[in-house]
Every structure is written in structure tokens, then in C-alpha cells.
């Protein structure tokens, strides 16, 4: 009987403030959708790091005849210099770090260049001798790239040694910035949702001020009076949270799996609907907590006035 009375009061409040309840649902939905997108983006970044970092290579670029850098003498790397690099990479000191090492001469590098820039006019002006002969090195542990860089950089005929992970770090930094931006927007939206919930509860309490006064006169406890108002906020937030969870699932299903996987042009592990389902409870719990706290603070302050 007591629960039925509490729920009846909560339902009455929802009907009286329907427009405000709809506003709470929409703000909660939008803010938690941002939260879900940010979480999924972090999951995607984690998967991409695991995939690409394992495939990142160390590139040893040999000198060309047109190279005027400090480490080159304006002539193409000789066979003896190339053999010296091969010998160094095969030495016991470095071999234990290397999973695989391949060498591309001018013709092989030129063929790859033509393939990558086939639609670019610059490809018509590049000749094989302008491109660096290159050693491509896959490491057992990509974090050990500094060992290769230090050991090979000063060998004669070597123009430069580049760890491809530095380019990946720049990409992931931009992705992380986008993810943190989404989180910041979500936090602002959640604050707005909390304020809107608090305002809705206070308006609902004000519209029933005579009923509340009577309840206090007959000895109703503050907790009994507060509970229906808290349920109002939680009910609206739960609907918004569920909508956000469904939207997050839809983004993964129809955009990530339906569009990105078909048009990405690279083989990659994208987040799946399983990840979206795992995020759903987080969104619902977050919505309930924000609504419950905001509602409780609002009605507690109102009753103290």
C-alpha cells in the first residue's frame, strides 16, 4: 500500500510536468549518447593501437646520389654499405629484437611509389634513383625501436632511421583529442540535465505545496515525501538513458559496421555491437545516478525552505 501510494504520487507529478519531463528525457538522451560515443571511441583507439603498433616498422633509408644531408656524401649508397647494414641487422646484438627484415632496392621502391601515387602527377617526374633504397624492419617488441635507431643511424650510407610509430602517435593524439572533446561536451550536457531535473522537481514540488504541507502536518516523514519526486527524475532519466543506449547501438550497427567497414579501405578491427551492449549498462547507471542525486538535492533543499 505504501509503495502504491508513493508510485501514484510520482505518476501524478509526471503527468503534471509532462513538457519538462520530455525535456529531461531529451537532454539525458543527448548527453549520454555523447558519453557512449566517447567510450566507444576509446575502445576503438585501443583496438587500433593494438593492431597498428604491432605492424609498425622501422625504416632505414639509404643515401641517394642527390642527397646532400649531413650523413651522406652526395652519392648513392654502395653495395658494401648496404651489406654492412645487413650484417649489422643480422648480428647477435640486434637479431634478437628483429622479427623480420626486408630490403627494397631502387626499382622495388619505385614500383611501390608508382602504385601509391598512380593518380598523382608527381609520379611522372620521379625516377628510381631519386628514391631511397630502404630496409623495412619488423620488431618483436615495437617498444625496442630505439635499439635499432641507435645502432644503425651512424653507419656509412645511412641517410636516416625512422620509427613509424611516431606517425601513429600523431594520429592517435588527434583521435584522443576528439574523444576528450566528446567527453567534455557530454559532461556539460549532463550538468545541464542535472540542473533541468532539479528545476523540474522543484516546480513539481511547488505545484503540490498544499499537499506537501498537509502530509507534513499528519506526520509524514521527509523520506516518504521525497521519494515520489526522486522517482520522477529517475523515471525520466531512465527513458533517456535507454534511448541513448539504443542510439549508441545503432551508431555501431549502421555507421561503424554498415558504412565504415565497407568503405574504410583497410583491414581493421572495428568496435562491434557487443561493445555497444557492454556500454549500455554504464549509460543507464549514469543516468539513474545523475537523476537521483539531482532530484534528492532539489527536493531536500525545497523541504528545508
Describe the fold and architecture.
There is one protein chain. The chain is α+β, with helices and mostly antiparallel strands and 305 residues long. It has 10 helices and 4 strands. The protein has helices spanning 2-16, 18-55, 79-89, 92-95, 106-116, 145-152, 165-207, 209-217, 222-263, 273-304, and strands at 57-62, 98-104, 134-139, 158-163. Strands 2-3-1-4 form a 4-stranded antiparallel β-sheet. Helix 1 (2-16) packs across helix 9 (222-263) and helix 7 packs parallel to helix 10. The two termini are 29 Å apart. The mean pLDDT is 80.
Entry keywords:
305 residues, alpha+beta, four-stranded antiparallel β-sheet, 10 helices, 4 strands, 8% strand, elongated, FtsX
Can you tell me the overall shape? elongated
Class by SSE composition: alpha+beta
Helix segment count?
10
Helix content: 55-70%
**What separation lies between the terminal Cα atoms?**
29 Å
Round the Cα radius of gyration to an integer and report it: 31 Å
Low-confidence stretches: none
Membrane topology: Multi-pass membrane protein
Protein name: Cell division protein FtsX
Transmembrane segments: 21-45, 177-201, 229-256, 276-299
Subunit structure: Forms a membrane-associated complex with FtsE.
Précis, in short:
By secondary structure, the protein is of the alpha+beta class. The chain is 70% helix and 8% strand. It has a 4-stranded antiparallel beta sheet.
Amino acid at each position: 500500500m505504501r509503495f502504491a501510494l508513493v508510485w501514484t504520487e510520482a505518476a501524478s507529478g509526471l503527468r503534471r510536468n509532462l513538457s519538462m519531463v520530455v525535456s529531461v528525457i531529451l537532454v539525458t538522451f543527448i548527453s549520454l549518447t555523447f558519453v557512449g560515443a566517447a567510450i566507444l571511441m576509446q575502445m576503438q583507439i585501443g583496438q587500433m593501437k593494438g593492431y597498428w603498433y604491432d605492424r609498425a616498422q622501422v625504416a632505414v633509408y639509404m643515401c641517394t646520389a642527390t642527397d646532400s644531408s649531413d650523413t651522406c656524401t652526395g652519392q648513392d649508397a654502395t653495395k658494401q654499405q648496404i651489406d654492412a647494414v645487413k650484417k649489422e641487422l643480422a648480428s647477435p646484438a640486434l637479431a634478437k629484437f628483429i622479427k623480420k627484415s626486408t630490403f627494397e632496392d631502387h626499382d622495388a621502391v619505385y614500383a611501390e611509389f608508382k602504385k601509391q601515387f598512380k593518380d598523382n602527377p608527381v609520379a611522372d617526374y620521379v625516377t628510381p634513383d631519386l628514391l631511397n633504397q630502404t630496409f623495412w624492419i619488423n620488431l618483436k617488441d615495437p617498444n625496442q625501436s630505439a635499439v635499432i635507431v641507435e645502432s644503425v643511424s651512424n653507419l656509412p650510407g645511412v641517410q636516416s632511421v625512422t620509427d613509424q610509430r611516431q606517425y601513429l602517435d600523431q594520429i592517435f593524439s588527434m583521435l584522443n583529442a576528439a574523444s576528450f572533446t566528446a567527453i567534455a561536451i557530454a559532461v556539460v550536457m549532463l550538468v545541464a540535465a542535472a540542473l533541468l531535473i532539479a528545476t523540474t522537481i522543484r516546480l513539481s514540488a511547488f505545484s503540490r505545496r498544499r499537499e506537501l504541507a498537509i502530509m507534513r502536518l499528519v506526520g509524514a516523514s521527509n523520506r516518504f515525501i521525497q521519494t515520489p519526486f526522486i522517482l520522477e527524475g529517475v523515471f525520466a532519466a531512465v527513458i533517456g538513458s535507454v534511448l541513448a543506449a539504443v542510439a549508441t547501438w545503432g551508431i555501431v550497427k549502421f555507421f561503424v559496421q554498415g558504412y565504415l567497414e565497407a568503405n574504410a579501405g583497410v583491414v581493421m578491427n572495428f568496435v562491434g555491437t557487443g561493445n555497444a551492449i557492454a556500454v549500455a549498462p554504464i549509460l543507464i547507471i549514469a543516468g539513474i545516478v545523475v537523476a537521483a542525486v539531482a532530484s534528492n538535492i532539489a527536493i531536500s533543499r525545497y523541504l528545508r525552505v
